[in-house]
Amino acid sequence: MNFDYIVVGGGSGGCVLAARLSEDPSVSVALIEAGPVDKNILIHVPAGLALLAQTKAANWNFSTVPQKGLNGRTGWQPRGKVLGGSSSVNAMVYIRGHKADYDHWAAEGNEGWSYDEVLPYFRRAEHNERIHDEYHGNDGPLNVMDLRSPNRYVQDFIEAGRQAGFRITDDFNGADQEGIGPYQVTHRNGERFSAAKAYLTPNLGRKNLTVFTEAHTTRILFEGRRATGVEFRRAGRLEQIGANHEVLMAAGAFQTPQILMLSGVGPGGELAKLGIGVVHDLPGVGKNLHDHLDAVQVVVAPQLKETFGVTLGGIGRVLKAIPEWRHHRRGILTTNFAEAGGFVKSQASEPIPDLQLHFVIAKLVDHGRKTVLGHGFSGHVCVLRPRSRGSVTLASRDPMAAPLIDPNFLADPDDVQRMVRGFRLMRGLFNQPALAALGGKEHPRSANATTDAEIEQFIRSHADTIYHPVGTCRMGNGATDVVGADLRIHGLEGIRIVDASIMPRIIGGNTNAPVIMVAEKASDMIKAARLSGAAPAPQVVAFPGTAAHAATSLAA
Ligand SMILES: Cc1cc2nc3c(=O)[nH]c(=O)nc-3n(C[C@H](O)[C@H](O)[C@H](O)COP(=O)(O)OP(=O)(O)OC[C@H]3O[C@@H](n4cnc5c(N)ncnc54)[C@H](O)[C@@H]3O)c2cc1C
Questions:
Q1: Is the pLDDT confidence value at 555 over 50?
Q2: Mutate which of 90, 147, 392, 474 to test ligand 1's pocket (most atoms within 8 Å of Cβ)?
Q3: Strand 441-442 versus strand 293-300 pairing type
Q4: Residue 483 has what DSSP assignment?
Q5: Rounded distance, CA 129 to CA 537, Å?
């Protein structure tokens, strides 16, 4: 069975590609997703996020290797395993990053990726319900809105920001990112609006779009250096499909490099040691992993009954909220928990914000995987452009095994210093009259840390990812770069990467909207290549054994 394009991974990047490429009815597109259809109700009720973390539904649940910088601890690395990918399990904060991030990509030689050049793709993707200006889109598939039923304590956090002297903003994605304010979210009508809901679900009726779910890609098929198809495991059987034009890798920052390495594309020596035949020795595959490390300071405040908390009253409020959400799509179940935050400078000399804050209306411990009794709130801080770099490598040649994930957190002392300043900055906000008046108390776990050395120890003992791994197939033209500015893999034909892996350096903010932008831009490049004849003429590649296992088309 052949398709013009095969998209590997139905997450943020993959859903955009599948939808945009299948707009042309003469083009056939297959999307291969390891997880199921996004039916789980916890995905769609925004507050379901908390239970998704605890039940581990729709999630790969990866762990890091022990992190030297985190006192030998192993970090958690959740990733969505479902249509919509991580956009189906994320915290729904809509952020693009700083203008300077994209200008930096372009300055490194990635032509076409400056802020002015990517802004049209952010706008094309976006349907902002509130903001109508030259920075925002109002006709795109991705709905962006203010929270419908914001928590009352959000205003106290913002007021504390004002009292501390920060700029207050209600748009982090416009002319100026800096400041403190409420986050806009990828919701529509009080529901999560994942990349699947925005791009894929509305287009499942297209006859030229075939979606394979619960289909685990095991390797890319090559003839010489040309990608010709994909092998995947579904219902216990191996199947193969062919690509007339291109294979498009969108399996995310951990699994795109993993699948490439399993297919013989990566550091030749490492692959040979595992007995994998080398198709193309590309040393940068899996390198340059970096991520936002996040420190959480919890404030205990039993009297703040309108925060989310495990108490009799708190559970009662949630139970009462179920019919409100069911009938009106309003109320506390529309929360994304990280309702407000900010982009601030850890010291006055910083040219642009180097820290992001998230204000969470619950006592968050261990990513919400641990049930914590009582009420309160949490202040998160992360360093936006960490210098530490790690890697993704293969644990074995078994495609069903998890890769070895090593973000190498806090390897660079500069990251530690910024985190310590960020921790102090968050405490400074807690101490402003607006938050202090709420009468909470910082939990002794962090409150006992007062000197720089103690704060550093707290961070090393408790911080973990805020879920933005990127960079493992870096875009650029150097020896360790993996894709060029057109996202084609260096040295190979018929294959591109369109997900968080390609970011040369992480953007200053949350990564869902940026990946969607990358895929919007990629879809134009892919279409243009086909129309200009730059892609090879369609060819039929026969793979044995596929005919008997016809694709499950959700469109059917
Ligand atoms: C808990 C959490 C909270 C987050 N919060 C936010 C937030 O509030 N705002 C924000 O902007 N960003 C947030 N992010 C980050 C953001 O969601 C991701 O950066 C973004 O979704 C990544 O897109 P992607 O296309 O690179 O990968 P993904 O969306 O992860 O997609 C990869 C897809 O590939 C599939 N796949 C992987 N391996 C295979 C295989 N072998 N075969 C077939 N399919 C495969 C996966 O199942 C998945 O569906 C969060 C992420 C998480 C996990």
A1: no
A2: 90
A3: antiparallel
A4: B
A5: 42
